[in-house]
Amino acid sequence: MISAFFIRLIFLVLILTSINFAQDEINYFSNENRLRFGDYLFCDNDYLRAIDEYKLVLKEKNSDSLKFKIALAYQKLGKYYESENSLKELFNSQQLHNDAKFEYAKTLYLSKRFSLLNEIVSDNSFIETSKRNEIQKLHHLTQLYSLQAIEDSSKFFQPFNQNESVELLKFYIRRQNLGNKSPALAAILSAVVPGLGKVYSENYGDGITAFLLTGVLTFLSVDNFHAQHDFRGWLFAGLAAYFYAGNIYGSAASAQLFNANLRITFDNELQLFLNKNNHFITRNNLFCK
């Protein structure tokens, strides 16, 4: 009798435990827990899985804050088109319209769609005053990129405080004096002395090679003419003229390549610097500590 009683008791405990476990398992997939897990993934930089969790909750619960989080996650992933579309849906949101418009402007900035950002900056009605200075910062930072026009220092540093201005000053000075080489001057130098234009463009190896090759071919041409070997004289003269002309063109191209590499290096260093400083705007710590 006692053994049968204990067997029934153990069986009942197992049944109740399995029921409670099943209930707990179902609770793990509640909207509240999905939202918490999504926030955890977002703060852990796992933005793609965070979006999946948010979208599952969004199917059952319409929420502007969820749409805003999804837009931010897309922005973090570099999916700027998706981020822009998600943010546009929140322009009429009662609570988040100002934040959505600012993040939209930031997305345009990050995607380097500077012309659209300029339109927003010129439209004072687009965003409230509280965020306008931050958008001005983004607008002014676009001028630091090598292919953009840049204002004088009195205007450029207006949106930034003193510490920010000091941090940006070295890039502002470099931006105004990138050290570009003139392709026209490089061509003229190589026309005077073969290879000199490439040396001017800091392409020293090609410059020395061009000087020696053109010089040797010219010498062989003159030497063969003196020896009355006209055919070989004209052959070497033609080769010398070919390499001489190519050296002039190549020197101009070398200067252009030097300038392009200079711009790319500067822009990459600027990008790393701005990312490190969060582009001198307030971090959006929506729920991450």
UniProtKB/TrEMBL annotation:
SUPFAM superfamilies in UniProt: TPR-like (SSF48452)
InterPro entries registered for this protein in UniProt: TPR-like_helical_dom_sf
Protein name in the entry: Tetratricopeptide repeat protein
Organism: hydrocarbon metagenome
